[in-house]
Design a protein that fits this description.
Blueprint lengths: L27 H12 L14 H6 L7 H6 L13 H15 L1 H6 L1 H17 L7 H17 L12 H17 L5 H4 L2 H4 L5 H28 L14 H11 L6 H15 L17 E2 L4 E3 L2 E3 L4 E2 L3 H5 L41 H18 L11 H31 L23 H12 L2 E6 L2 E6 L2 H10 L11 H5 L14 H15 L1 H6 L1 H17 L5 E2 H18 L10 H17 L5 H4 L2 H4 L5 H28 L16 H11 L6 H32 L1 H14 L15 H13 L9 E2 L4 E3 L2 E3 L4 E4 L1 H5 L41 H18 E4 L23 E6 L4 H5 L2
Parallel strand pairs: 6-11
Antiparallel strand pairs: 1-4, 2-3, 5-6, 7-13, 8-11, 9-10, 12-13
Helix pairs in contact: 1-4, 1-13, 6-7, 6-15, 7-13, 8-11, 11-13, 22-23, 22-33, 23-29, 24-27, 24-29, 27-29, 29-31, 29-33
This protein binds protoporphyrin IX containing FE.
């Protein structure tokens, strides 16, 4: 007599109150699973497994939140992946009672016998032919399971489902490939940011395939039911699993959503593809990972809550201390032994609450199939296939690697403390260190890290040690007491390729060579005297810009280009006596150089991954070096042209002793070429070109960017713009254009520039430096060769230092002189490697802003607020360049018409 047992249905589930906030969201699978729980009571407590101590049960039942559980486990709501709790208990009960209980297995035994018979018959007709046994067993198992679940067969005579079965076979193979604890992305999240692995994408695709496969089965059943067909009409007790669940769904549609049914239907497939010998080749060599739901003790050690547990079953099953000749296939060792579990030394189906619920079915199918095949046929081997052993070995290796990583992380953390190194964010991962914490924009991410761990931090960015400081006092200590120690620049790839192998002014190490270059640049181009001497060039360029804007009034102007061309022309005239942009000048060259500068800043700086993980160079990652070489070639070609032009002119009689600007001032190239004449070995063409390139590159993007941010802020704050115009009207009037000498009379304009440089410093992390010897910062020991990043952006946005730090309030600088306030406002850096172009930049920004405000009224093209999003790059550029329209101010019309 056959007996079917159904679980009692309680009126209400008292455990609803225990549900966590996450489980109360309305994600369909989870919610519906919880409703299922409301219907099925917990009146039958699961038996506590033998030999499992209370300590270890804490560990066993939960599952870690791995990617496989998210995508294949219906967001951790399926029976395999749900965390320990009522929801999981209920799903487990349904699956056990509806498909895998001893009672149901007994009822459905005819299906298994039938399928084995059909297989035997097929093999009989294929006598003496080679048979691929893996497929034979797979087809058998699938047919058995499909008949139990959906009442249909996929393989055999008169069956049309082979294509569908092929699809399912792929699904099963992929499921095993991407499930479990061996996806590196689960442990190194950073890999997914670098797009390495792509496991997540594959899991997403696999989930879609699995879901639609099972949904089709349900739909097929529904259609057939509507047409009055039934698969297993011979015996109502032999109802398929879908039938059982769908009839429950009919009664309680809310509680039995399709998602719940699907997540349950997928379970038996996964657990029942057992086709290897259980001790030597356990189908789950590391079991399925568990996670501890609270702290517990194992082997006398404290194991924290949330620790993932991997039981290396393969190692236990192959341990020579437990098994004699473990690598030998000796079935005799189990003579007289009942069952498939022997304490904890043999447990191919796991043990405890999360053990395999398909154990009974699997052993029956495997037993019946094997027995019948052996009974009916003689077999001979074609080739010996080393099979699961390889998989088992690789899993054991992963386990040992994980152990090593954990040990390394913990040891590294304590080592820092013992050595009196600054605090470091936890954990420091092997190889990548803290790179996993970084994302663009860097200064914002680093600022968050400092807010969490402190203003003096030691980061490990791949192979480099980085000291990150983000408080005025720490910055002061680095740039005053330790200024010489930190006067080197790190050897980054950009310094090698764009900095003439670390010999340019920007990238050279602190020493005689750097001192000499700095002296030339300061004396010959950036000293107060030289700046004064070339003020005519700036005024001249400014006038020509005003003229162009006057003629294109009411048209939309790209302000970034306007500012860039202005500063490029000014510097070009100081360097080589010619300006590059504007209507009468060579626009093509200007565009070319602008691209060169933009590219230099894009590839430059401290955020190239290859600088921190040199190993990436060997695997050809990113091709950064190639891009740098191409760029450098363009830069050099551009400057070489200019230099040759000057050499030709100077060698001609006409050019001798005559400056090229025509104003009685020697240009920088002339000075350098005359130095070359006296000391040709030192002042090579390369040295001259590299100096010109540094000055041009460092000056253009920084100054143009500051002007663009300032104009954007003014357009978004019309009151401030009005106030600045009023100041100019009162102090300068409208009878002459603003001159550099007028700037001292415009303190409010100065406040606007300071506030712009505070909010949007062109060097948000200054430029990276490197310590030449061991030193102390904040009481911590800083080893030699440590890279220094001063997060000026964080300091200038620190709410402890600045009231409303994100607000544009020029008034906060009223009564304040200069552009440096101790170490809390320092947009040009400090110390020996601070910006030598500060004087020029302030003059240019002041003159440009003052003139544009004096001559024109401004608005955005669509009268909307300017988008202030920051773009990626070293100099804090705007993500979208500023577009604006100008109208001449009525009071200035007379002057403008005289241009
Ligand atoms: C608003 C405009 C500018 C800003 C905000 C700015 C900012 C900076 C900063 C923060 C540094 C790094 C300082 C450090 O490491 O402590 C720097 C370095 C430098 N700047 Fe500027 N800068 C500007 C304009 C200019 C101009 C106009 C020039 C040249 C004409 C220039 C030439 C340089 C050079 C050559 C260095 C490297 C100095 C060295 O390594 O010895 N900068 N600048």
């Amino acid at each position: 007599m056959l007996l079917i047992m159904q679980p009692p249905l309680p009126p209400q589930n008292p455990l609803f109150t225990e549900l966590s906030p996450k489980s109360q969201t309305d994600t369909a699978p989870y919610f519906s699973s919880i409703l299922v729980l409301a219907l099925f009571s917990l009146s039958l407590p699961l038996p506590q497994p033998k030999n499992v101590s209370p300590e270890t049960t804490l560990f066993l039942p939960s599952r870690p939140q791995l990617l496989a559980g998210k995508y294949l486990g219906y967001d951790f709501a399926s029976v395999s992946w749900a965390p320990l709790g009522n929801h999981w208990r209920n799903l487990r009960r349904i699956s056990s009672l509806e498909i895998l209980s001893a009672g149901r297995l007994q009822i459905l035994s005819s299906i298994r016998v039938d399928e084995v018979k059909l297989l035997i018959r097929r093999l009989f007709s294929d006598e003496n032919q080679t048979v691929e046994m893996k497929s034979v067993f797979f087809e058998l198992t699938l047919n058995v399971m499909m008949r139990i679940i959906a009442g249909k067969r996929y393989y055999g005579d008169n069956v049309a489902g082979v294509e569908e079965a092929k699809k399912f076979k792929e699904i099963v193979e992929d499921t095993f490939r991407y499930s479990g604890a061996s996806n590196m992305v689960d442990f190194l999240l950073v890999l997914s940011w670098f797009g390495i692995g792509g496991t997540e994408k594959k899991l997403k695709e696999l989930h879609v395939k699995r879901d639609s496969f099972v949904q089709n089965l349900i739909e097929e059943y529904r259609t057939n039911a509507e047409n009055g067909q039934s698969y297993d009409s011979d015996d109502s007790k032999k109802k398929t699993f879908i039938e059982v669940l769908l009839s429950l769904q009919e009664k309680e549609p809310h509680d039995y959503k399709d998602e719940t049914i699907k997540s349950l239907m997928l379970l038996p497939y996964l657990h029942c593809i057992i086709n290897e010998t259980l001790r030597m080749y356990p189908a789950g060599p590391l079991l399925v990972p568990h996670e501890s739901s609270e702290e517990c003790m194992v082997g006398g050690f404290r194991v924290p809550r949330g620790t993932m547990l991997l039981v290396n079953l393969w190692a236990i099953h192959n341990d020579p201390r437990i098994w004699e000749d473990p690598a030998e296939f000796k079935p005799e060792r189990f003579e007289g032994f009942q069952g498939v579990t022997d304490g904890f030394k043999l447990m191919p189906f796991g043990t405890g609450r999360r053990s395999c619920p398909g154990e009974a079915l699997a052993t029956r199918v495997v037993g019946l199939a094997l027995g019948s095949l052996i009974q009916c046929y003689d077999w001979e081997r074609l080739k010996y296939v080393r099979y699961c052993q390889e998989g088992g070995a690789s899993n054991a290796m992963i386990f040992h690697i994980l152990l090593l990583i954990t040990f390394w992380v913990v040891a590294n953390h304590f080592r820092n403390k013992i050595k009196n190194l600054p605090p470091t964010p936890f954990p420091t991962l092997p190889i990548i260190g803290h790179l996993y914490l970084l994302k663009q924009p860097l200064y914002r991410t680093l600022s968050k890290i400092s807010a969490r761990y402190g203003p003096i931090l030691l980061l490990k960015l791949g192979s480099r040690r980085v000291l990150l400081v983000s408080s005025p006092s720490a910055a002061e200590e680095c740039l005053t007491k330790n200024d010489i120690t930190f006067a080197n620049r790190p050897n980054l790839l950009v310094g090698k390729h764009l900095g003439y192998n670390y010999t340019s002014l920007l990238w050279a190490s602190y020493g005689n060579h750097w001192r000499n270059l700095r002296k030339i640049s300061s004396l010959e181009i950036l000293s107060t005297n030289r700046l004064q001497a070339f003020s005519f060039a700036r005024v001249d360029e400014m006038r020509s810009l005003i003229h162009r804007l006057y003629r294109s009034q009411n048209q939309i102007v790209d302000m970034k280009s306007v500012f860039f061309e202005l500063i490029l022309n000014v510097i070009m005239r100081m360097i080589g006596g010619k300006s590059y942009c504007g209507e009468k000048l060579k626009g093509v060259e200007s565009k070319e150089f602008r691209q060169i500068v933009a590219e230099s800043f894009r590839l430059g700086g401290a955020s190239n991954l290859v600088d921190f993980l040199p190993v990436l160079r060997w695997i050809g990652y990113g091709g950064l070096e190639k891009s740098l070489l191409v760029l450098q070639e363009k830069r050099v070609r551009f400057m070489q042209r200019l230099l040759e032009e000057h050499k030709t002119k100077m060698s001609s009689d006409e050019g001798k002793d005559k400056n090229l600007d025509g104003q009685g001032k020697k240009t920088m190239i002339e000075v350098l070429l005359s130095l070359q004449e006296s000391e040709p070995e030192y002042y090579t063409d390369d040295i001259i070109i590299s100096l010109m390139l540094v000055i041009l590159t460092a000056a253009t993007d920084t100054s143009a960017g500051t002007m663009e941010w300032a104009m954007s802020l003014l357009l978004n704050n019309p009151d401030v713009l009005k106030k600045a115009q009023t100041e100019i009207d009162h102090q300068i009037g409208s009878d002459h254009f603003i001159d550099e000498s007028d700037l001292a009379k415009l303190p409010y304009l100065h406040c606007i520039i300071n506030e712009t440089l505070r909010l949007y410093p062109a060097g948000p992390l200054l430029l990276p430096r490197q310590s030449s010897e061991e030193c102390m910062v904040g009481g911590y020991r800083i080893p030699r060769g440590t890279m220094l990043l001063v997060n000026m952006w964080a300091i200038q946005h620190d709410p402890k230092i600045w009231e409303d730090p994100t607000e544009f309030k020029p008034e906060r600088f009223e009564g304040f002189e200069g552009v440096r306030d101790g170490f809390k406002l320092m947009p040009f850096g400090a110390g020996r490697r601070s910006c030598p172009g500060e004087g020029l930049a302030l003059r240019m920004v002041g003159l440009a802003l003052g003139s544009l405000i004096q001559c024109f009224d401004w608005e955005t093209p669509d009268k909307r607020m300017v988008d202030m999003t920051e773009g990626p790059g070293l100099t804090l550029p705007k993500a979208h360049s500023l577009q604006a329209k100008c109208r001449p101010r009525p009071t200035m019309l007379k002057l403008l018409s005289q241009l």
